[in-house]
Amino acid sequence: MKVKVLSRNPDRYFRETKNDIHKVPRNYDPALHPFEMQREYVRALNATKLERVFAKPFLGCFDGHSDVVSCLNKHPDQLSWLYSGAADGMVKQWNIPLRKCVRTMQAHEGYVRGMTFTEDSETLITIGDDKNIRFWSSKPPESSSEEDGDVLPKHSIITKYQLSSISHHAKKNLFATCGDACLLWEGERNEPINKFEWGADTMNCVRFNPSQCNVLGGCASDRSILLYDIRGGSPIRKVVLSLRSNSICWNPMEPFVFVAANEDYNSYMFDMRRLKNPLNVFKDHVSAVIDVDFSPTGKEIVTGSYDKTIRIFEVDKGHSREVYHTKRMQRLTSVLYTMDNKYIISGSDEMNIRIWKAKAWEKLGTLKTRERNALNYNESLKEKFAHFPQIKRIARHRHVPRHVYHAKKELQTIRDSKKRKEDNRRQHTKRGVVPHVPERQKNVVSEQE
Amino acid sequence: MEKNKYYRGSSLASTRKKNVIKSKVRHKKIIQRDQKIEEGLAKATKAEILLSEQAGQIEVEKGEHTLQLKQCDIVKHVDIASATKSFHLDLRQFGPYKISYSLNGRQLLLGGHKGHIAAFDWVTKKLLCEMGVQETVHDVVWLHNENMFAAAQKQWTYMYDNQGIEVHCLKALDRVTSLNFLPYHFLLNAGHESGFISWVDVSIGKIISQYGTYKGSLDIMTVNPSNAVTHCGHANGTVSLWTPNSKKSVASVLCHGTPISAIAIDNVGRLMATGGRDGLLRLWDLRNTFAPLTSVRVGVPSSLNFSQRGLLAVGTGNQTMIFSEVGQKQKPYLKHVTAGFVESAKFCPFEDVLGIGTQRGFDSIIVPGAGEANFDALERNPFQTKKQRKEAEVRSLLEKIPVELISMDNSILGDIDTESLKKARDQQPKYVKKADIQLQHRKKRKNAKIPKIKEGLRTELNLRMAKNAKEDVSEGEEDDQPRRKTPKQSQVISDDPLARFVKKKKK
After folding, report:
1. pLDDT digits (tens, 9 = 90+) for B380-393
2. How far apart (Å, rounded) are the C-alpha atoms in residues A303 and A294?
3. How far is A278 from chain B (nearest CA, A)?
4. pTM for the whole structure
5. Looking at this predicted complex, what is its ipTM?
6. What fold does the segment set B66-366 form as a domain?
């Protein structure tokens, strides 16, 4: 007869010395882990609550401009350099981690309308209401004496055109400006080498595609979004929306996708090849969207609006996942996603530049492995249980300013009543007279080639 | 995919046609997730080679049977450390003794009916505390760790720390006859002499709910460890199932024609064993049918308990039988005779040990193959340090499962809540285009056989419930029973109310 009895040697279960870590034998048998689903649910609920507890997105502000911040630009290579232009013609360069202004330039008289970098990112080109195009070194000064505004441009072009926006070619020494017409300039030559026109309207935004680098997109005040190919010298395509677009931004990962910030409170994502059907409509703002920027991963967009809020949208969803606002932040003029996908920078009407976390609850700084694992586990739990009503409610809840709250309610009432009316009309007319128009196509007037 | 114990159901993408998932991206995502699940399954299976311990067993030669073995024989064949696990405490004065092992199996709590309470580390035999409360002790139970325990005394229920200092007196739990603790919910479940059943959240010290069963004193009560539903055995032969969320019992099963004497539920919530005054031991399938599986005549069981690996201890009179392979072919495995009548027999978790509290003391016997060999240290750790215990306590409090989640069906949380979906859809204004979602369940699998018993039992249950609502339950039920039987069935076994199930099953 043989008898085998469980007899555990304690030495195998206790650590040998005080400096060792504790031994933790695991057994993944489900019988030893009862209430699997329930416990995970509670963990997910706790994780969601913690997310909201730690959601403190505002990091700080760059104080220094004495007029409306009109435009912002990030350096293509340097994570820490930020450039901002103001309505009094001042351009400032900032060091983001130090939150310090490293250079100030009196670039223009009147508004600074736009900024861009040359393909080698050595030179910053600015335009202003004084109809000048100015070239500056993008590097901060070595000596501190230059900080006070007596920095001189490398070069400047005096033009006869109204300039409202500028964008540089990604590979060649070419840049485009717009205003009365869309102009193409080469290097530091005094006259534009090409002029693009489609209709007689003024344009307010122009952007080169960063990867399909000969394609140029812009929006005009005749409510259209235009696409040009600079090789052909002619416009490719144009789409007319119901209201004017304020700004466009190309997706850095998918060259044919761009998003337009529109006056009708929405942003529209388009496929350059089929402008008739927008890929997505981003709704949530309660006033005109002024500026939009893609995250460097191409998965999210950030929008700044006239309703004093910043919203972050995931590209495959129609509503924002996050809304940022502070009591003092006024109308947004420009927003940026930094190149490390971690921060959002916003410039607004009350002369301030603010920096925000892209994920409001993210812990900054390096994480220990265990900490990171725990956070990853919590993330996947949140994803798994995201559709549970309790969890969804907590995760979605955001406090918004009163005017946004009321405007949103009002808009909803308007939308409902429109829908109701349309439905009534549909019910009392012949079939097909009042067709179902998809939400995405409602604001697209026409596409022209 | 191989269906092992880690398997949690088939994947979505494989069971459904491709076109059911409309979006291409979604389909891809689902497939990716399924792959991850499969990987996890493979890894969990692979991780089994890291399990260091093997479960105990007895190998006997031909012609021998394990049933012939006595404790002294087993002790002779095991190592010295294990031999010390078989011992006897002679406590004649204050019996009979109720016992309780702490959740990690290290500490033992004895509660003598005449007022003797003792807690000790039964492996090292180190006494934690011992006291005489000078009133009757009906039941004792460890709480979430070995720092606190509860004792149901004559009038009220008290909570003591491991020094024996009274921490709380729960006056809301008065005249309690049986206690159970739900570690994941932090609920202390008590059955009152008055027939009431109550749940107290020990983390906040509040009564969660208290309902009347109106079926007499609740001294036979046990909790299903897999779904936290309380099973109460009654004098009318029924076992009723209770959750803190419903005023009425969620189900009631007629198990015996005589009063119930003991109930036990196995670790994974698959089987329920009931013992009746008729001297029968019955096994029931708890998963969905409540179908009776077997019925054995063993004498009146005063105590039943399942071990982690599925052995069943049956205490009858002064002997304790241990069955292996419960189910269709029930096999007796070991037998132990104690000095006094068995009051409560409980297997020690993570050890091959059965503790038997009797009228004349306590017996600890070795039962090879009873305990789970490989514990999960993040769940229950017999070798826990003080710091680990503190850490685990905080963690388990953070993960306390809300009472609302206790229900018969554990998977209900993972199911689609069609009801509220339907409600939301109905509330939408008519101009909103309604989503085309099928709210009905998918067709049942073709192979799934639902035993006919279920139907019979269901009608039985319905009738019973309807009757319960109408009239006082305590009398009449037993009288009604034979009348409903057809004469043909009653010919078979006249005293067996479940005979008709057997008949139907054969068809």
Report:
1. 999 999 999 999 99
2. 9
3. 17
4. 0.87
5. 0.84
6. Methylamine Dehydrogenase; Chain H (2.130.10)
